[in-house]
Every structure is written in C-alpha cells, then in structure tokens.
Design brief:
Elements lengths: L3 E7 L5 E5 L4 H7 L8 E7 L6 E10 H14 L2 E7 L4 E10 L11 H15 L3 H11 L5 E7 H4 L8 E9 L3 H12 L9 E6 L14 E9 L5 H13 L3 E2 L9 H7 L3 H11 L8 H6 L4
Antiparallel strand pairs: 1-2, 1-3, 4-6, 4-7, 5-6, 5-9, 8-10, 8-11, 9-10
Length: about 300
C-alpha cells in the first residue's frame, strides 16, 4: 500500500474521486489502508521497480541462538523471517538476497512435510512435553539447509495447502524479540500446539491505518489448524502483543474495538473524519467495520 501513488474511488453516491499526493495527500494517506470503508477502488497508480531475481536460503538454529542473531540477519538481507518450531528447541531462518544470475533452482518445498511431522509429534507425545522435545531433537537434522533461485515474485509468494486460523500482530521493532519470547512461552504452555510461530521484519510507512505507520516493525503470526480450537491463540496472542505495543493485522483474526484501536493508531481520529466525509451514511460499513469504528 505504501507504493500506491494515486487512487480512483467510486463513492456511495456514484461520485468519482481522484486521489493523489498533489491534490490531497491526507486523503490518499487515509485511503491507502481504508478497509473498504471509503469507496470502491476502480483504478490505482502503483510505484514499481524493474523485475528482479532472488536467492533464498533456509537453515536451522537453536531458538535462543537464532533470536540473538536475528537483528543482524534482518539488517543484512533484503527479506528475513524466522519460524519457531514449538517443543523442538529449533527455529528456521528464511533469508532472501538479490541475485544477478539467470539460473533457476526450485527445490520441492518442505513446509508441508515439516508441518505434518510436527503434528505427528504432538499427536503421539503431546501429553509428555519433555519426551516430545527429546524426540524432536533426535529427529531433526540441524545441518539441513535449502537453497532456491528464481524471479522475486515466485520466491516471495507461498502456497499453503494446510488450512489454518491466524492472528498476526505488528510490534515496534525494538520490542519484537521480547514479544516473541513471551509468545513462545505461552504457546508451549498449551501441549496441543504444533504450528510454527512466524516473525518477519517490515519497514515503516505513513498510511494512517497501516500497522507499520510511523515505525519499523516486527510482525508475529500465531497459527492453529482450521479444524482445531483457535480462540486461545487469538486471546493470549492479543494480550501479549498488546502489552508490547502491537497493532493487529487487519485481514486476520483480532477482537479489538474502536477504543483499543484509537490508542494504537496516532491518526485514528483523522481517519474517522475522512471516512465520514466520504461515506456519511455508512453504506460501505458492514457489522465488522461498525465494531472496529465504534458504530455498532
């Protein structure tokens, strides 16, 4: 959304509204992340860069060691994220760097296999967490790595064949690792957990309702299988991440209303003013948005 330079919206009354940084920079800052509440976007101008290739490396480290190394790794790579594997003592690092070559290396992704193995360990040894960790550390090869090279859009998009529920929170970068450690401790209190916990680093932007507004960010994603209980991760993940200054991902599960959200977003009141100007009758609001904006 930070690369959206101009927008054309159709308002609730059918009026066309043209937004760009020259004509109305504040309205554009509101519209870049507006949850569909300002109008229907029918056209936009997007900042682009020449197509590029990336090289991806995936490797394993003990959790504590990788968390110590993570800030330096995030600063060294174009993209960096990590996945903590609950009850194993290990985490996987995923790093992408620009690549000038033209050869393509696309190994078969191991994500689904790893996830199935973690679920088996949970199913077999979930009531015995010490034994579960002992077995995991003997089954995992800490030397295994994966290398891939391809066009950037192919390596940065991922197919997830296992359905899941997810809550994701965006914390100030300087508080991200403390928040992640608290999330890991909470998740490993629940012996039915097996999904990896994801953390990634995202730069700040200036869109008013962006979770990255005004600050560099660490994003923490907590998952549960679609056919298993997920209310706990939403409730406890929200509690922990809120205590570390987190903002929720708009497209994923959260339970916050207008009062809590207004405390997290410096331009919340300004966005409300723009929303009322664009849609005074609230025709673009559904039940969820009415709760989010305190109009339910």
């Amino acid at each position: 959304h930070a690369d959206v330079l101009a927008l054309r919206l159709v308002g609730a009354d059918g009026r066309l509204v043209e937004l760009d940084e020259r004509r109305d920079p504040q309205a554009l800052a509101a519209a870049r992340v507006s949850l569909g509440s300002l109008g229907v976007a029918t056209q936009y101008t997007l900042r682009v860069v020449p197509a590029y290739a990336l090289e991806r490396k995936v490797w394993l480290r003990p959790v504590d060691r990788l968390l110590e190394e993570a800030p330096a790794l995030a600063a060294s790579y174009r993209h960096f994220e990590l996945f903590v594997l609950p009850f194993t003592g290990y985490a996987a690092a995923v790093a992408h760097s620009p690549y000038a070559g033209s050869d393509v290396v696309t190994p078969r992704p191991a994500d689904d296999t790893v996830l199935a193995d973690l679920k088996r360990l949970r199913d077999w040894l979930g009531r015995f967490p010490v034994l579960r960790s002992w077995a995991a550390q003997r089954l995992i090869d800490p030397q295994q790595t994966e290398h891939a090279r391809d066009r950037g859009y192919r390596l940065l998009s991922t197919t997830r064949s296992v359905r899941f529920n997810e809550t994701e929170w965006h914390l100030p970068a300087e508080r991200g690792l403390d928040g992640l450690r608290a999330v890991i401790a909470e998740i490993e209190r629940h012996h039915d957990a097996f999904f990896p916990i994801e953390m990634r680093w995202v730069r700040r932007d200036e869109a008013w309702l962006s979770p990255f507004h005004g600050r560099d960010t660490c994003s923490i994603a907590i998952h549960a299988a679609a056919d298993e209980e997920h209310e706990t991760i939403v409730r406890e993940g929200s509690r922990i991440c809120l205590s570390h200054g987190g903002r929720p991902h708009w497209g994923k599960l959260h339970t916050l209303g207008a009062t809590e959200l207004a405390a997290l977003y410096p331009r919340w009141a300004d966005f409300g003013r723009v929303r009322r100007e664009f849609d005074p009758q609230g025709r673009f609001l559904n039940a969820h948005l009415r709760q989010v904006f305190g109009l339910a």
